[in-house]
Design goal:
Blueprint lengths: L1 H24 L16 E6 L3 E9 L14 E4 L9 E6 L18 E6 L4 E12 L13 E9 L5 E9 L3
Parallel strand pairs: 2-3, 4-7
Antiparallel strand pairs: 1-2, 1-5, 3-4, 5-6, 6-8, 7-8
């Protein structure tokens, strides 16, 4: 009976999936991240030689512009592109030892491994590293191509933001 209820629940969610996406994309009362419960989203990030494997949870920016944060996990920005699709996938987090404290040592050409909730791993290669003002949110813009953006605080008293961009590794 429990299995039947579970299968029925999945079927019901899948039947309303297009409606959920439509409502979420129109900035309705349904949070945008609802559809990531079904689609592929990153759950871990690894940058060999720089960053040990870190857990990723789903995060968002609220209506007041406040970023949801975690003291021990990186966050996948719910309004960014899902993993394994075109667009800008944004991962952000604190510049602390628990999250992105070692990110400053990343270099162009370094690999980044993202593992998804579906247990698939995508490898990216760092193509750019820069610092921007905290008010420069252009790095969040969507793109017609697949790109990964990693965003964290940097500088004395965290007055700037470190931005790392990467593209999928060509195999």
């Amino acid at each position: 009976m429990v299995v039947g209820f579970f299968l029925c629940s999945i079927s019901l969610v899948m039947s309303f999936y297009p409606l959920l996406l439509t409502l979420a994309s129109k900035n309705s009362y349904i949070p945008k991240y609802v559809h990531y419960q079904i689609l592929s989203y990153p759950t871990t990030i690894t940058i060999p030689h720089v960053l040990t494997t870190k857990k990723i949870v789903i995060g968002h920016i609220d209506a007041n512009g406040t970023w949801e944060l975690s003291n021990d996990s990186a966050l996948f920005l719910d309004s960014s592109a899902p993993l394994h699709s075109s667009g800008n996938t944004v991962i952000y987090g604190h510049n602390t030892d628990n999250v992105f404290g070692m990110l400053q040592y990343a270099r162009i050409g370094d690999p980044i491994l993202l593992t998804s909730n579906t247990k698939k791993t995508q490898t990216y290669v760092i193509t750019a590293i820069k610092t921007v003002s905290p008010t420069d949110l252009s790095i969040l813009k969507d793109t017609p191509f697949k790109i990964l953006t990693i965003y964290t605080c940097s500088g004395m008293f965290d007055v700037t933001r470190l931005v790392i961009t990467a593209v999928p590794k060509v195999t």
